[in-house]
Amino acid sequence: MSGQTEIMWGEEAKEKVVAAQATEWPEYNLNLVYDFASGLSKPREEFGFGFGFLAFKDVFHNYFLPETLSNLVNSTEKERKSGSIKRGDLFLTRTSETQEELGMSSVALKDYPDATFNGFTKRLRPKGTIEVLPEFAGFFFRSPKFRAEVTSMSSVTTRASLNNEMMSALKITVPSLPEQRAIANVLSCLNDKIDLLHRQNATLEALAETLFRQWFVEQAKEEWEEGKLGDVINVKGGTTPSTKESEFWEGNVHWTTPRDLSNHTSVFMFDTERKITEKGLAKIGSGLLPIGTVLLSSRAPIGYLAITNIPLAINQGYIAIICDKLVSNYFMFLWCKVNLEEIKSQGNGSVFQEISKSTFKEMKFTIPPKLLIEDFDVLVEPYFEKIRINQTQIRTLSTLRDTLLPKLMSGEVRVAY
């Protein structure tokens, strides 16, 4: 077709995406398309038993609601009726620490019998007068266009917030049903592949952890030497270059805080939110840490874990584990996962819990035979390498999805249907 460009990305996505002149799609204020409802607030002791409950994190991290809700709440019949979850329901986070995290969305693709949703989100239930496919809505409300609208009108005091009046002023663009379906199919192909790779990685990580528990916990020998973590690893800390000195910032050196791991979903770290200059790096005593360093967040909270896939510097919220003695980084990553509660118990502090580098190095460590550690590494290394390859694919597919998403939602790129 003259003047049109097809974009293809593999066997999973057969839809034709073409660049074309957009026709005008109608826009509607959200209050014309959806009815708004508030969620359920309960004291802590009412959670952990009862009926399904849609938690804030389930909305925040997912375009579409998870197949199974991760929480339970002791809800009444009246609460379950007023706070129900049905196919097509849209959930928006109504309050957050920052504007950028406000109004994150997730859409239900099925009914969730007897389930309710949390009070930090708003439920937007379709009125039925203007038809919006749930599969389309899931992508539209994560598009940069809608996200920019939310950010521009949110109010920030101590927390960013959205109220009904503000949500009523937000708009949804509604293509024809066939075009909604075609757009959703294109983006779903990418999302499904990303989801499959995430699930593969979760399985591989669980297998590696199971093997670690079998070899070094369940089958541990009494004759193994007792030592300390500092006997088998080196640890380093970091700092934050002065934010008042512009010459330290916006450079090419990766620099990480535990915030980078707050939404981390797998083993390896490929990027950081902020970067510093060489002058900024010179202010950090630990310098540039090598690829393969195990990062453990040491405060706010204790316990985020990752293995670096890039050289980087760290702030004061990490313990960096350098595995240049007896054990590998894969071994230490799994050791930290298995012993995470013990690590957390070593923390102290009046404002927030923190574990120091010296305390971490003094933690007890049972030292297995060197040959056993080497045999274990040979066994689990393919698992971690597959996870790394999958994460690389996830990044590529996510970039493609995030590039297509605003173009499809604005009509700049159109789908043949």
Automatic annotation (TrEMBL):
InterPro entries: Restrct_endonuc_typeI_TRD, Restrct_endonuc_typeI_TRD_sf, Type-I_RS_S_subunit. GO terms for biological process: DNA restriction-modification system. The keyword DNA-binding applies. One of its GO terms (molecular function) is DNA binding. Keywords: DNA-binding, Restriction system. Coiled coil: none annotated. Residues 69-205, 222-370 form the Type I restriction modification DNA specificity domain. Belongs to the type-I restriction system S methylase family. This is Type I restriction enzyme, S subunit. It comes from Hymenobacter psychrophilus.
